[in-house]
Write a structure and sequence with these properties.
Elements: H1 3-7, E1 15-22, E2 29-37, E3 40-49, H2 57-77, H3 82-85, E4 89-90, E5 99-100, E6 106-111, E7 116-117, H4 125-141, H5 160-174, H6 177-182, H7 184-191, H8 194-197, H9 199-205, E8 212-214, E9 223-226, E10 232-235, E11 242-244, H10 246-257, H11 275-289, H12 295-299, H13 301-321, H14 334-372
Antiparallel strand pairs: 1-2, 2-3, 3-6, 4-6, 5-6, 7-9, 8-11, 9-10
The structure holds adenosine-5'-diphosphate (ADP), 2-acetamido-2-deoxy-1-O-phosphono-alpha-D-glucopyranose and magnesium ion.
Amino acid sequence: MDIKDVVKQFGFEGELKSVNEFGSGHINKTYIALYDCNGNEKRYVVQEINTAVFKDPEGLMENVFAVTEYLKEIIAENGGNPERETLSFIRTRDGKMYYETEEGRCFRAYVFVENSVSYDSADTPELFGKSGAAFGKFQNMLAEFPAETLNETIPNFHNTAWRFENEFLQSIFAASNELLSECEDDIEFVTARRDDMSVLSDLLEDGKLPLRVTHNDTKLNNVMFDEDTNECVCVIDLDTVMPGLALYDFGDSIRFGASTAAEDEQNLDNVSLDLDYFKAYVRGYLSEAGETLTQEEKHYLAFSAKLMTLECGMRFLTDYLNGNIYFKTKYDKHNLIRARNQFKLVEDIEGKLDEMNRIVRSIDLEFKAKHLFQ
Ligand code: ADP
Ligand code: GN1
Ligand code: MG
């Protein structure tokens, strides 16, 4: 079905001018639909949900509608602009949360956040720090949301040990000898870090870390910034909002945004963890979430950056061994390049963990001291 016919299924105002593909996500397909509305340009975002990854689109849309409605109330109570500071989903003409074509393809639509941009990398630590504050605030706003009412759209999403046992090892068993010999060192790299994988899930199971409503995909390009002021406008890409650990969100942000290189940079000499970016993110994040987080959570912030990077690298490697069936790729070895990039970052983080822990402790103490004297 043509994308123009899909777009017409939603209750958009005006006359359709164009539909163009947009964004750099690895899973869904995003389009911007441009409308002429009495001489004014109006844009809408239409996305095709990747149903191979999100097998329950109904459950996914229930989550995003529930979370965005909840956020809108909090934003309005605090004097903010609910239409701009969270996503606004638009139903189909017949009132459904998403449109399903006869072939079973699923599309949903939301209001385009005008005058905003997303970044694949931050030019300055300050900008990255603002995304930390945005995700910290997002976490706080959802602190009282009844997590048990959310559908677990992808079970075990950040359960690294589960992914190792059930996905990574399976991909090794099924891979050809040729692939296995090409990836021998990479497989060894992951396996050598097996003990790290269950650290957070064990703490959760033992009740030492609280279950929270989390975003689970906290890449920098999932925050929209105001084009004029460069202040954060809203957090987007809510498909993976589920019960989880605050540490998943913190760690994944660092993995993506505090690296000195893009996720698929091939020259590994360019890949390392920038401590200034890390520091700025910790400051932004704790400025919003510092009072909500437990000491145990803060204790594992730096470690979570290592674990989320290892997990993501392992997922890229798994997909490479499986024949590239999950993440969008642009060339044959794209997933292998991404995996090696993440492993280089893991190694670098390992060498910097003590310093990262010192940074977290000192910023936390600084905020605590400020509160004492307020
Ligand atoms: P993906 O799952 O593919 O990452 P996203 O929901 O993050 O999809 O959307 C991809 C990109 O589209 C974002 O990085 C952002 O630049 C843009 N985008 C998404 N939603 C909006 C919106 N409501 N307003 C403006 N731009 C948006
Ligand atoms: C995917 O869709 P996107 O690009 O925001 C993936 C994340 C990975 C990320 C790696 C549902 O996110 O988990 O961390 O790629 N999303 C899903 O860049 O698997
Ligand atoms: Mg995204």
